[in-house]
Amino acid sequence: MEENCEDCMQWEEELYWTHFQTLHFSQLLLPGFHHCLVIPQKFSIHCKRKLPQIVTLKSPSGAIYNVKVEQDDVEKTLAFRCGWDKFVKDHSLKGNDLLVFKFHGVSEFEVLIFDGQTLCERPASYFVRKCGHADKTKASAQLPVISPTSTGRVSKEKYPLSGLKKMRGEISNDSLDHKLDIEMISAGGNKALSLAQRVVLPDGFMVVMKRSHVSKCFLTIPYKWCLKNNLLARQEVVMQVDQKKWVMKFNFFGSRGRGGISTGWKKFVQDNNLRESDVCVFEPTNSETKPLHLHVYIFRAAEAESSNNG
User: Fold this and answer.
1) How far apart are CA 135 and CA 160, in angstroms?
2) pLDDT at position 253
3) What predicted TM-score, i.e. pTM, was given to this entire model?
4) N or C: which end of the chain has fewer CB within 10 A?
5) Can you name the residues that pair with 240 across neighbouring β-strands?
6) Where's the TF-B3 domain (predicted)?
7) How many degrees, rounded to 5, is the angle at CA 123 between CA 122 and CA 128?
């Protein structure tokens, strides 16, 4: 009888982790939570393959935050990092607060916030957007969260967007002090670009796909980024989307003050079905190792626009 009960429990455990559409975990905010929140190890083990590297946290108020999921080598589990500090600040989280996360199986977590002293929900968490703490922009639109390998719509939620006009402009990256030439594609602006801007890290860069990128198949890399990462000669570069990798050749044209990739880029464009106005975010794993290894996150303009209109 005991063996049968144990078998039943194992079956129930497997059924829960493999077939339930929504999963939950809770986490107590301990010292160091301001910049990183460790995800429980058991949840990480069972859901690691399901999670894209960029997920969304949905506040009780409905405000959406894009947060990067990274491996925590100390705790041997996953953790929320880049973007988490913004969530902490906007919700005035304190030590010993209890957070409950509801995972919908794709890339979104709904979050409930409980006061560490009263053990009751914190009412203020339902008014973050209304008070303007999370985002002071007035316009909003529907945007999908795109996982690294996604070619379809993943999740739709409301994202605050600034009222972008149709124009040709530049984005500056403060830490690198470089400017990327971009082009807005509609009166509302490139929605995929708006999402990509929120997740690009200081050590990375992003490129809005132009016709030359997807038809002539040449990728120009920002000059100052090349200087910062000592990318000043012809060499191999490895790009990775999820678990798949592509080996490419980088060329540096010192007299023209620019560098870029041609050999191998066409294959990358085709394999990932890149289209004009899609946005790619590139992040180096370690600039000191050779060949240079770049993780690539793709935000698809067509999907962003269709979800906005739907």
Assistant:
1) 7
2) 73
3) 0.44
4) N
5) 245, 295
6) 22-117, 204-302
7) 100
